[in-house]
Amino acid sequence: READDFQRALEASHHFAKARMIDDAVTAVCAGADLAVRRGAPKEAERALQVVMERCPEDKSQPLYLLMAEALNARGRYQESLRALAHWRCSKTTHCGEALAATIRAEALHRGRLADDDQIMRASSLASEFVEECDDESIAMRSLQVRAEVASERGDWTDVNVVRVKAASIENAASDPSIRASALLTQGYCSLVAGEASSAVAHFRRCLTILEPLSLDPNIRQALNGIGLAYTCTGAFEKGIEAFHRSINIATRIGDSVAVANGWGNLGAVYEDIGKFDTAENCYRTALSQENIASNPRRAVEANLNMASLSMVIDDMSGARQCIDIAKLRAEASQLWWLYTDVLLAESDLHIACARPELAWPLIEVAQAHTKGRMYMLADMGRYERLSRHHMWRCHGFDAMRRLSEMGNLKQRCIQISDRLEVLAFEEWAARERPDNKTASLSPFHELRDMGLHGVIRRLRTLGVPPP
User: Fold this and answer.
1) Which residues of 124-137 are buried (b: 16+ CB within 10 A; e: fewer)?
2) Are 232 and 220 in contact, with CB atoms under 8 Å apart?
3) Which of 58, 319, 341, 361 is most buried (most C-beta within 10 Å)?
4) What is the pTM of this model?
5) Considering all CA atoms of the chain, what is the largest pairwise distance in Å, rounded to the nearest integer?
6) Is the dihedral of CA 211, 178, 25, 50 positive or negative?
7) CB of 387 within 8 A of CB of 345?
8) φ/ψ bin of 235: left (φ > 0), alpha (ψ from -120 to 50), beta (otherwise)
């Protein structure tokens, strides 16, 4: 067979298994399953592995559990992936198996939010340690990517920069184009979370140029989702929408329902910001309908909070309440403080939208106590920054709010231009509300209009912050 012909290898494994030629079946399925996952066919890999494992004695099926974990991980079935890893026993002859297993475990725990922050960080650190003993650049890049994701959500910008430097070094030294593409993907992610959207676009573009001829669909999907986010950060909404659609199509073909839900959520957020509320609602409902969402607390909370935000904008306060209640239950079950904090912030917005701001202030204070020094983990930093200013203004006065706004780097905290303009528009509205100041700049509202962010203006109006 050809080196890239995973389909023939998987078919051969099936025939060998039926003929009870177990050694040949294991050899064939090992050759085909790994390539199938990398080519974006994890469902085919899973089916072939299942057939062979059902006919294998336990000692011969051992190496297959690691491949099964990888196939399940690629489809967003993180809990099942961890169960497969629990059956796997490491070979004493190589460190690469340990490194791959540790990396899969870190990916599953982090992306499925199946452990608390400290456990996820330890899993990521352990993967990095095993990779040091393993001369496999592909596993090294996967480990670096999950390390970057974990570091960014903890607000550890020093480690994000360490990862970026390592990825750049690997890119410059690698001869394998797939490794260079992975390194560019990680650099693009690091640039994106650091608020350097233009740099992120450049890295993702170069990554896609390499990846698309190689047909590495899972990596292409990640790069498209990343460049979609980077485009929307810069205000290139049509390009972002196109990239998200392409990412969703690949995720659907792969069978990764969690990535599909993430893509529809990202797409819906753009449509909501530009005021296409019916389209946004369809996106959010599609995200909520995806398989495996209920078992992924992060995606379940995000999808319900997206729907709650839109419901407030279209004046469906009972629908918003229902979505927030569901999100609260999922966040409580997850035991993740930052998911629960996102719910508190959404609930605060609901109280303000319903003209009950006195009920919002205590919730914002709890959210601020939770996020002290680690607010970067929140999914909606724009909402956090706006509500923090609203609370400070109402409870302590305009000057206190102004001091708060001068304390941090808003561009780094809110990488989306729509979020930044929403916060700045609130500040300008608060300035106009001062009895002694009626000459505040109106530029944030003008910019929102000029960029077509009519949904953001509508959101502010719903919260009692009308444009002039």
Assistant:
1) bebbbebbeebebb
2) no
3) 341
4) 0.90
5) 88
6) negative
7) yes
8) left
